[in-house]
Design a protein that fits this description.
Elements (H helix, E strand, L loop, with lengths): L8 E7 L3 H12 L4 E4 L14 E2 L10 H24 L12 E5 L2 H16 L5 E3 L1 H7 L10 E4 L3 E2 L2 H14 L3 E3 L3 E7 L2 E7 L4 E9 L20 E11 L11 E6 L2 E7 L4 E5 L13 H14 L8 E11 L6 E4 L5 E5 L9 H14 L12 H4 L4
Helix pairs in contact: 1-5, 1-7, 2-7
Bound molecules: glycine.
Protein name: glycine oxidase
Keywords: Membrane, Oxidoreductase, Thiamine biosynthesis, Transmembrane, Transmembrane helix
GO molecular function, one term: glycine oxidase activity
């Protein structure tokens, strides 16, 4: 039975209604706890811009093996999660698409970088197949003749971040979570315990547990005691949206990533004809300006990779902020401040890690036990408090 959060008191108060805050709220409400989500515009945030690649293998970086385990677990969960969410939201589709990913190289240095990534994949036993340029073009005929080869990873898929956010909003409402469209002004702390937040209009919302899921603004919440959370840096990504007219489809059949003279780009083709091209990676604070230079670089590299894109209508440009922790891995679970739980710092992997974040945090909030899979990502790793 779902217990509704009532008035200004909840069992769980989630600060931040992006996809991470929403999935924690939905899964926690399903467990029968009274949940309130606090956000002026629930469902907004980086997922509105993200391309939505589910790419634990093709986005793997050296030294991130613990994150790989979490990412693979979430990737495996995605198909069932998407079906559950569609059911729980009354039929909203998330755009989850099992399409696989092709990662290609344009010059010989780029090919060397991908060969090293392929060798790393092999050492870790990951499913990743090396292709010649001709084999890559056989899979994706729109690729430029100069493509030098690359990797085919059949297990890296995609989802539509906007549809995902909309489905999570609806699922939260249907599960009895209260969506409070307001802004937090201050964390309330009494007797060394987080007890809620004060809103900008002065209202106090109290809760048994407060979940901080405010992306790159998480550590900026006034009232947060020093040292409880590390700085979460905003890493801007500029993204383009093109439309593939019906007569040109399928333009691309799977996610295409590329190393283009050392830079990285990706093209994500949706089933509905949208083609998302991303992304820049810029550390300039909380700035989401779309710049001529950012758009130019994306179009220049995408054109070199897939010359036919110049025929397509460009329908939207945008920029979002990836929340990057000091080690680029998420913060999941209780913090050094009793009553305060973190679900933030997902950096490049917010969409991928949505299912597993919801499962792990709901388990902790309902039982007080943090599952083993989440333990390497405890916020205590930055506060030197024993987990
Ligand atoms: N995961 C894609 C990006 O962060 O650009």
């Amino acid at each position: 039975m779902t217990r509704l959060a009532s008035g200004d008191r909840a069992e769980v108060l989630v600060v931040g209604g992006g996809i991470i805050g929403l999935v924690v709220a939905w899964q926690t409400a399903r467990r029968g706890l009274g949940v309130t989500v606090l956000d002026p515009a629930p469902g907004g945030g980086a997922a509105q811009v993200a391309a939505g690649m589910l790419a634990p293998v093709t986005e793997l970086q050296y030294g991130e093996e613990p994150l790989l385990r979490l990412g693979m677990a979430s990737n495996e969960r995605w198909a069932a999660f998407a079906a559950e969410l569609t059911g729980a939201s009354g039929g909203l589709d998330t755009g989850y698409r099992q399409c696989g990913t092709l990662a290609v190289a344009l010059d010989s240095d780029d090919r060397e970088e991908l060969r090293e990534l392929h060798a790393f994949h092999r050492r870790l036993g990951l499913d990743s197949q090396w292709l010649t340029g001709r084999e890559a073009r056989r899979l994706e005929p729109m690729l430029a003749p100069g493509v030098r080869g690359g990797l085919h990873v059949t297990g890296d898929h995609q989802v539509d971040g906007r549809r995902l956010a909309a489905a999570l909003v609806r699922a939260c409402e249907r599960a009895g979570a209260v969506l409070r469209r307001a802004e937090a002004a201050e964390l309330l702390v009494e007797d060394d315990r987080a007890t809620g937040v004060r809103l900008t209009d002065g209202t106090a919302l109290t809760a048994g547990q407060v979940v901080l899921a405010a992306g790159s603004r998480s550590h900026l919440l006034p009232g947060l005691p020093p040292g409880v959370l590390p700085a979460i840096r905003p890493v801007k990504g500029q993204v383009l949206r093109l439309r593939v007219p019906a007569a040109y489809r399928p333009f691309l059949s799977r996610n295409v990533r590329a190393v283009v003279r050392g830079g990285h780009i990706y093209l994500v083709p949706r089933a509905d004809g949208e083609l998302v091209i991303g992304a820049t990676s810029e550390e300039q604070g909380h700035d989401t300006t779309v710049t001529a230079g950012g758009v130019y670089e994306l179009l220049r590299d995408a054109h070199e990779l897939v010359p036919g894109i110049t025929e397509l209508p460009l329908v939207e440009t945008g920029a979002g902020l990836r929340p990057g922790s000091p080690d680029n891995a998420p913060l999941l679970g209780p913090t050094a401040l009793p009553g305060l739980v973190a679900a933030t710092g997902h950096y490049r992997n917010g969409v991928l890690l949505t299912p597993v974040t919801g499962d792990l945090l709901a388990e902790y909030l309902a039982t007080g036990d943090l599952p083993e899979l989440a333990r390497p990502f405890s916020p205590h790793r930055f506060t030197k408090v024993p987990a």
